[in-house]
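Q: What structure does this chain adopt?
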Amino acid sequence: MYPTSPIAGSGIDPDKVPASVNVVDTNQIARTGSLNIADALQQQVPGIIVNEVTGNPFQPDVQFRGFVASPVAGTPQGLAVYQNGVRINEAFGDTVNWDLIPTAAIRSVTVVTNNPAFGLNALGGAINVQMKDGFNYHGAEIDTMGGSFGRIQSSAQWGKQVDNFAVYGALEGLHDGGFRNFSASTVRRFYGDVGYRNDTSEFHLNMGLADNNFGAATTVPVELLQQYWGATYTTPQTSTNRVGYLNLTGKVEATPSWTIEGSAHVRVFDQKMLDANPTGTRPCDADATLLCFGDVNALTGFQPPANGLNGVQLANPFDTGAVLGERDRTTTHSTTIGVSLQATNDDQLFGHNNHFVVGTSFDSSVSRFTASAELGTIGSNYVVSGSGIFLGQSGDPVSIGPVALRTTNQYSGLYALDTFDVTNAFSITAGGRFNAARITLEDQIGSALNGNEAFNRFNPIIGGTYKITPGLTAYAGYSEANRAPTPLELGCADPAHPCIVAAFLVSDPPLKQVVSRTVEAGLRGTKDLNIGTFGWKLGGFRSDNTDDILAIPSPVLQGFGYFQNVGSTRRQGIEAQVSLKSSALQLYASYALVDARFLDSLQVGSNSPFADVNGNVQILPGNRIPAIPRNRIKAGFDYSVTDAFKVGGDALFVSSQYFVGDESNQARRLPSYAVFNLHASYQINKTFQIYARADNIFDNRYATYGTFFDTGAVPNFANGGTEFTDPRSVSPARPRAFYAGLKATF
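A:
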């Protein structure tokens, strides 16, 4: 059964889904040998690629059809993500922290497209994660692996059913030293489920905890990478993510044809980040014993003072010639409570099979966000050492200073979907969802951030499927979706008052909600052959966004920016996949083309070397959207040499992409890359299995993400302190790595 809404019980036959069908099961997750679910998604779903904007493999950007679910605050989030029916896009910035999902406990992941029932942010689709429980997992497993860069990881899971009751639990722990300086990761996760069911009802109480620490090295200038692949720039860059959640679900068969399902949940998320950066603070031109913020205004001759927390201009305590920097700290604490209720009916309509779903959901979140900036000095290793001196409100206009913000999000939804079998071969699906979002910002220091915004929209869906033969189905559909601006975006949306994106929010001008209109169509089929079951699919899609939101760099203050509606954009393409499954051999291969373009003219700030004298680049209709590669090719196999010995491998090719900041498409692109991985396992006996894997076997040195930086902000210490000459800054991928492990199953 394929999900038609976040609540699991609403599924229908995949042949009746008027959209692309993408499912990743527990075996496909296990073959990666990874505690990162993004690895399996990238292998198995044609349109998905992963990049490491943060510089850490456990905090990836997951991109599908040019839409992103990212842990990076300030990234426009175009995918909704659900775990056991609960939306896990975090309240403050709609971010998705993939590191908080316990991979060993995942039963399946579906990537749902063209369906507004999944609510806000489902512009490009929704990623729906279903977890294991004691009814569908029996036994115990312990899996321990270690290898390159100090990696050691272990997971344990256990499930048992006793009569009508069942219990399941999973624990995961990981430490990785990272291949780059200051990029160590520590992951600790728990998931548990207690369930009860009888002939007409089923109830579950599931819970989870996570406490993770990351050294996120972010992008690094290419001039430093040319000397050392593990180089970093302005560190420390660290984050701590903690979460605790509790979810109560119930399902009751009220009548033979009506099923009622519901859930109630609470989620507490806590994040602390330390982000070292260059600073706009410098000795004043007129008096070097004082500190100023920014350059002298050429028209007025005024240089804004750098103030302390008391509002008084700071004296300059730093040595002459010291390179100044900032240690920017942010904290985010969010508490979310929510409920959902859904009814499903399978009564025939006019003598034809019919599947009707109606549901509603309500989520309320309270977030508290703080930010501070500590001045410091940047050493020759690019480590920023703090001074204990904190910046107050500084800049003209004011663009930095302490932030204390309380936000409230209230998201409501009402949806209905109906799948009607016109004939045994032809089915029509229609319906829609009404979304209501209300966002309140309360400045805890002044009043500049105060705001109250409301966004409402009804998003329809219409589609159909036709079963041409028992093994061949055609589908087509149209739908709409929307996302409301986040509190983070609303707090930094004034071009006249730019801020360090994701940190120093300064004002609350209005932004419009983003609306996506998607049409897709295709064919899919299966056929039993002598050598196994052959499956395939071929489809095309087009998604047009209106009032898309992007993070725009400020042309006035380097390192600052703001969020802005940028008109219309389009993402369109094709997806093709084939697979062969038999007892001894499994093969898959896929190709995806994603063509993402701006549809309107727009001038935006940029650090691009092609920016004009005012620091702007001109977007023209038809320019490609940066950071979205056009072509993705994937392939893999698993082969049982004997009943005990198995080997396999996978390959990934991603074509070139424009650097973020090159919206005008004038600079050279980030090069394409290809990666090849191998793995093998040997089943010693019924209980024990040993396995090994080699990633990036040809040791290809490539980057998954690129942007531009201010070459004059910090000297190139690796080249004698001269100024950088190349503005490109990239996220380098992990070099060749080897791992081995032991799995025990009971």
